[in-house]
User: Fold this.
Amino acid sequence: MIQLPVGLFDSLLARQRAGIVEASVAAYGPAVWLGTSLDATFYFLGDGRVIITSSLDVETPLRIATEEEALQAIVAGSKTLVEAKLLDALPARPPAARDCSRCGGTRWWKMSGTWTPSAPLLVCPDCSGRGWAA
Assistant:
């Protein structure tokens, strides 16, 4: 379970557009939309879980995210919702941790082989957006 800073869930919920949460997700209780990728939509529940809905997986259209998926959804949501406080919910960086070798500690990875300003940014797949490796 991921703990958001006090009051952040309610704040995000209050500014959320009505109807953005799918009915199947709303059955779990209040939820905040974190974002949508090519094949999935991510929601944060008030109890700290992240739910993933899939438009491609018809056998499992809704599931609880793994810890790594939840971290990635929180990092992506911080950008989508323009809410840096979401990053405060990530695990604290241990003192001996080194920067992630793929993202260099930025949490983000440019998909193209060469850097260009227009290259799409993805949450780093190696560190799940933590920015560090143990």
Notes: The chain has two domains: 1-90, 93-134. Helices lie at 8-15, 23-26, 67-80. Residues 96 and 134 are 8 Å apart (CA to CA). The mean pLDDT is 90.
